[in-house]
Write a structure and sequence with these properties.
globular
């Protein structure tokens, strides 16, 4: 009723469109926002939220068009970045990279540059170009050597290439600079635990990470895996079960299943692995 009586009222159309989105009534939200676009008012908001709807539906060409139609303002940067990511994800990596670099040239604020560099590196990784991603991050660190964001991103990218020396040195440097960086503490602690080395040092990192983020399932998973490496299967099982309950991810399932298997509960291990395989059949930890 409100829509039928407000087709020319752009403020009402924007309000009911956003309310419909919040209520997950996507089709209704799309109808209201398209009507809003027809009025010529609030064009940036209409295009942005229509792009998000198309993005969610994986209608990437339509999403890109709406994102690119968002003009300069509060929604501009996030819209252009997402359009670039969608170009890359749809097989047009060169266009995506060019768009990110164009944004970098347009933005005068140096604080925004590391975010653009990590976006480009992530696009390259998604395309399977891990070494190129490390190169982009290394070039970024030459310009912004104190950037924790770039150090962390390069550590993870280096891990994908098998360069454990860069992984460890970047994380160690980051932890010295940011001793309360829970993500860095977790990443280094997990690497050491998974590699079954320097377990006492890994324990220091992971216990501190848990104090900083006590409800983070990724950190619970890492600490649980460390306890398994240390021979404490009971503590490992408790942590991994809690982590998996909070976030049923394939990697956590792989760890939990192994702990259950080694503990003698092979039926439970198979159950965990089978469920994870149904959800994420291509995950490398399960195949």
């Amino acid at each position: 009723y409100l829509f039928e009586n407000s087709k020319d009222n752009s403020n009402v159309l924007l309000s009911i469109g956003l309310l419909a989105l919040d209520s997950k009534r996507t089709d209704a939200a799309q109808r209201y926002l398209e009507a809003l676009l027809d009025t010529g008012d609030h064009r940036d908001q209409a295009n942005y939220y229509l792009a998000r709807i198309d993005d969610q539906k994986q209608a990437f060409d339509a999403a890109i068009k709406h994102y690119e139609d968002v003009g300069e303002g509060d929604l501009y940067l996030s819209s252009q970045l997402r359009a670039a990511e969608l170009y890359a994800a749809s097989g047009q990596l060169d266009i995506g990279v060019e768009r990110v670099r164009s944004l970098s040239a347009l933005l005068p604020d140096p604080a925004m540059q590391p975010m653009l560099i990590t976006t480009e590196s992530r696009m390259l990784q998604d395309a399977g170009r891990d070494s190129d991603a490390v190169g982009v991050l290394s070039a970024g660190l030459e310009k912004f050597p104190e950037s924790g964001e770039l150090l962390y991103a390069r550590a993870l990218a280096a891990d994908r290439t098998g360069d454990t020396n860069t992984l460890m040195s970047d994380l160690e440097k980051l932890i010295v600079a940011e001793p309360d960086n829970a993500n860095a503490l977790n990443a280094l602690g997990y690497f050491l635990a998974d590699d079954n080395q320097r377990l006492d040092e890994a324990e220091v990192y992971l216990e501190k990470a848990m104090r900083l983020k006590p409800d983070d399932p990724a950190i619970m998973d890492s600490l649980g895996w460390l306890r398994f490496r240390q021979g404490d299967s009971v503590a490992a099982k408790n942590l991994l079960e809690r982590a998996y309950e909070l976030y049923p991810d394939a990697e956590i399932a792989a760890h939990l299943g192994e702990v259950l298997w080694v503990s003698g509960d092979k039926a439970a291990a198979r159950s965990v692995w089978d469920k994870a395989l149904l959800d994420q059949p291509e995950h490398d930890k399960l195949t």
